[in-house]
Structures are given as structure tokens and as C-alpha cells.
Amino acid sequence: MRDIDPAQPDPGTVPPVSGLLCYCRPGFESDLAAELTDRAAGVRVAGYAQTRRGDGYVLFHSDNGPALTHELPFRELIFARQKLMLLAELRDLNPSDRITPIFEALAGRGRHGELIVEHPDSDDGKQLAGLARSFGNALRPALRKRGFLSQKDEARFPRLHVFFVSGTHAFIAQSVVGDSAPWEMGIPRLRTHTEAPSRSALKLEEAFMTLLTERERNARIKPGMRAVDLGAAPGGWTWVLTREHMRVVAVDNGPMQADLLDTGLVDHHRVDGFRYQPVGPVDWLVCDMVEQPRRVAERMATWFREGWCRHAIFNLKLPMKKRWQETLLALDLFANNAGEHATLTVRARQLYHDREEITVYASVE
Fold it and tell me: Does the predicted TM-score (pTM) go above 0.90?
């Protein structure tokens, strides 16, 4: 087999494809497809979505993939766990030699700084985990030998993704560090805390990790800050805040875990979260109440309009249908009713630990 210069196209290269490959929670493919379609139209980049329910990913075909990935920053996408720029689609792969077609697809694509071999986070996709792991171990040194991959991981080059949807069908794509999720399959690996009152603690931990930059976390999450947790019982989100040594008013008619109250950092108010008003402004408001998303968004807007909080993380529980449309309505309602601020930052994402909901981070300066 002759060597291929990664800097030069090869006459036998696999026909390229163009567009985006985005991962999502299985069952939310149509919502991500609707989001990509609307956002692409908003930046005047033509294209169309291709997906199937339960696959855990969406293809968005466009003749101008580089422009599309530039115009749709990953941080602004809500239903995408990961955003990749498509390079090639490989069908009918020979199980005895899957590497040669990848070499051909990468000819002329330059060098990459890291290899990630993945599969969909779906019932069928999880059966490919063993293949992805073993194939990655074989492909990595082969790519380095040919010059397609740096000798060690380097963030200055794009990351190369090989995404298997079956043993004979894969997509080749790339991501840019800083404009994509840093985790394999777009899934952060968080440790379950047995001492936490509920698994919902993972939602707030992931929200802090995903929706805030490192600089924002360092500046906005500090010991001694004051917080309010609406719909707090049994205390999963309050527990996360107390681990940051914040003082928390936990608002819920239900009982809180006794260990939380023993910390001396928690004041439990048995009142309706939609009626509670703080005595004075607080640093953080968090809310995971089960209620219609527009009602929650309106109440969160009241907290910002009245100056009751500076930062917030809240969940919006979505309906079974038209979830993208409901998301837009709720976020617009919040932004339009949050009052006049020099800067109002709003970011939203369906987190890995979310289910039928999205998580919103809002902040004013």
C-alpha cells in the first residue's frame, strides 16, 4: 500500500460530504433537526436535516459545512450534545480493512490533533462500544504513521471523529477545541455521590460544568454566597450548593434531607416556590420545579426584573411534542420580561442528566 501525503488530495479519495453531524439524547432527534433547520435559515445557510427517531444523532446536509459550523457556535445549540463538521460518509466497509477507506477520506484534509472513535448513545449504538474501542486502538498508530494525526494530542489541530453507526457504516468528521463538547460522545463523566439526597444533584453539577466557562465558575461560585433553591426537596440541588459552602434558603413544602439541615448552611421554608420572595437580593437562584415551562420562565424573569438574584440555573420541563417551539417561546418570554440590564447572558442546553427538559443559565452584570 503506497503512502498518502495528508497535505495533498489523492485521486482515489472517498467522495466528501458537507454539513454537520450532531449528537443528541435519543428521542429528541426531531427537536434537534428543527433547531438546526431554524438556525441555519437564520444565518442564511441552505441545508436540510436527515434523522430517524431513536438514532441519537442528526445529519444536517449543506453545501457549505465550514460556513455553517462557523455560524452555529456549539455554545448556542440547545439540543446538541456534540457538534461536528462532516468530512465523509463510509458505507459498506469491509470488516477486514476499515482503515484504508479512512485514509482515502482524509487525503488532503491536513493533520488532526486527537482521534475519537464513537458510536450513538442509543440501544443499538451501545452494541458498537467494543468495536469503537478496539478500532480506535488500531487506527490511532496507523494515522500517526501516515501523518494524519499528531504524535501526541495537540489542541491546536482539529480533533478527528470516526462515528460508527454500524460495523460497516461510519461517518468521518472533525471538531474544533472550544467549539465542541470536550467529552467523548459529548457526555461528561460525573461521579454519582451516594451521600447526595437525589440523583438530581448531577443535573446542577453538569450545569455548572457545561453552561459556565471556567472563568465564570471561578468568579461566580464562591464560598459565602447566598442562594435560593425553589422546589428544593429532598435537597439534591441544595446539597450541591452547600458543597460550594453557600448559604441556601431551600423553598419547598416537602421534607428536606436531615443531614442538609444539620450543616447549618440551610434554612428550610415550607412555602410555594411561585409565591416565595427573598428578604434581600441573593447571588444565586436555582429552580427545578415541575411546572409548565412558560410559567417557570415567567417566574424566573420576575426574579431578575425585581433584582432578587444575579445568577440563576433553572429547568424547563418540555411537552411531548413541538419541544423546540416551546423552548423558543419560553426563552423569549424570559428574555423579554427579565427587565432592563446592561448585560443579560442566557444559555440553554439539554444536559446528559436531563430527561424531558432543558436547563437554562442566566446572569446579569
Answer: yes
